């Protein structure tokens, strides 16, 4: 995809959730986009904090940047979004956006979590919903949105010049690809989405959403289509679609639910907003229970 010029990218890694937040800067203007901001959450204490997002905000202010867009690659199940906090604190009225199929995720989890008939499932919590191949600008940068469903139905990637922010499609080659066992996930669709990304030029910078490095190893935020084709644990050797689906389904069957699944989804389908407080001013998250009572 063509762009007037190439973006500068700064990343911030949150070790608690193994998540990268990317700051995408137009070198010719103050215009900036933030991809996948993290809101800190302690599931043991039920405490939210903004240390991770505050690092991003300090960077923006120190560099004299103007935050125009806050975009999500999908409704994350492993961390809470800080989109609304960043929007409020930035002072620049950025737009919060996600893929258009977020409405399917909202519909599913409204029912699973019994969020009530009044919970909107039309995406109105976001300022904008992107369709496949839609374009928008960040200063002089042109951004193209690519639908990459499979991990979740609403997954999208953002292409900016030679940079693509791929969300949870692929990880560093040694770690493989995203799970597909969440509601609306589909391993075949993920394979197709990954192939779409791997057709990009070899030099394309693929900015990752996660890495899970061993102790003492620096997290890897960047890959390329060439590195993924040749070295990805789940893709190398010319794996066919059918082989990938079988591999991914077998792998997913061994995985437990993410620790932050239920808190994260409840916040992220609200575009990063916390649930409304009750009459006493307290906010609550729902955790569904299964199994036999004792």
Summed up:
With 294 residues, this protein is an alpha/beta fold.
Describe this entry's structure for a reader.
The chain has 294 residues and is α/β, with parallel strands linked by helices. It has a single domain (8-267), classed as Ribonuclease Z/Hydroxyacylglutathione hydrolase-like (Metallo-beta-lactamase, Chain A, 4-Layer Sandwich), CATH 3.60.15. 24% of the residues lie in helices and 23% in strands. It is built from 7 helices and 15 strands. The protein has a 6-stranded mixed sheet, covered by helices on one side. Strands 10-11-12-13-14-15 form a 6-stranded mixed sheet. The mean pLDDT is 95.
Q: Can you lay out the helices and strands and say which pair or pack?
A:
Blueprint lengths: L7 E7 L4 E7 L5 E5 L2 E5 L4 E3 L1 H12 L3 E6 L8 E2 L1 H8 L4 E5 L2 H11 L15 E3 L4 E4 L2 E7 L8 E5 L2 E3 L21 H12 L6 E3 L14 E2 L1 H7 L9 H12 L8 H8 L26
Parallel strand pairs: 3-6, 6-8, 8-9, 13-14
Antiparallel strand pairs: 1-2, 2-3, 4-5, 4-7, 10-11, 11-12, 12-13, 14-15
Helix pairs in contact: 4-6
């Amino acid at each position: 995809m063509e762009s007037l010029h190439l973006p500068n990218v700064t990343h911030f890694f949150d070790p608690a959730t193994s998540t990268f937040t990317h700051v995408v800067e137009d070198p010719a203007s103050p215009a900036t986009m933030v991809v996948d901001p993290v809101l800190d959450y302690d599931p043991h204490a039920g405490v939210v904090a903004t240390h991770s997002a505050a690092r991003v905000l300090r960077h923006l202010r120190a560099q004299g940047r103007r935050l125009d867009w806050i975009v999500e690659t999908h409704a994350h199940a492993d961390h809470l979004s800080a989109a609304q906090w960043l929007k409020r604190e930035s002072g620049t009225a950025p737009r919060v956006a996600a893929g258009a199929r977020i409405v399917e995720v909202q519909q599913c989890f409204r029912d699973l979590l019994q969020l009530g008939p009044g919970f909107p499932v039309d995406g109105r919590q976001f300022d904008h919903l992107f369709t496949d191949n839609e374009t928008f600008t960040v200063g002089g940068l042109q951004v193209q949105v690519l639908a990459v469903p499979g991990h979740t139905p609403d997954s999208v990637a953002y292409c900016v010049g030679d940079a693509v922010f791929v969300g949870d499609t692929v990880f560093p080659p040694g770690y493989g690809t995203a799970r597909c066992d969440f509601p609306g996930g589909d391993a075949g669709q993920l394979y197709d989405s990954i192939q779409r990304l791997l057709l990009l030029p070899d030099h394309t910078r693929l900015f990752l959403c996660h890495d899970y490095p061993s102790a003492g190893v620096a997290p890897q935020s960047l890959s390329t289509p060439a590195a993924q084709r040749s070295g990805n644990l789940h893709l190398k050797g010319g794996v066919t679609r059918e082989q990938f689906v079988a591999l991914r389904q077998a792998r997913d069957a061994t995985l437990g639910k993410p620790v932050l699944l239920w808190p994260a989804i409840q916040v992220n389908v609200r575009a990063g907003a916390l649930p409304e407080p009750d009459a006493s001013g307290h906010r609550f998250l729902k955790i569904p229970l299964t199994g036999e009572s004792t």
